[in-house]
Amino acid sequence: MKRIPKGRVTTYKIIAERLGCRAYRAVGNACRRNPNPPVIPCHRVVGSDGGIGGFGGETSGSKIRKKIRLLEEEGVEVKNNKIVNFDRVLCRL
DNA sequence: GCTTTGACTCTCG
DNA sequence: TCGAGAGCCAAAG
Questions:
Q1: Which nucleotide is nearest to A24 (CA to C1')?
Q2: I want to staple A78 with a disulfide (CB 3.0 to 4.6 A). Which of A11, A51, A57, A68 is the partner?
């Protein structure tokens, strides 16, 4: 996750694939638990559909909004918690 | 040690 | 196109 270049995003699926498993949920779990908040850019990890996902009911809350803002700052367009230019910013690693 | 749940994904109806 | 079900891995109860 830390290898995700700035201005790019990836999906849980891809991360799991890179891990050699299908632990999509485990990845999301690790993010949710976020063992290392400062070094883990969870906001750069999205769903296969380019959606940030549902977040503890804060899908449209302030925490997500901030991450969205961060992505936009990096050049990732986000609309309604979804990656707009998903194909362009998606990092397949 | 087994069961439940989760920021997931895929397939079928 | 949308909803429901199954599969997957890991952490918490």
A1: B8
A2: A68
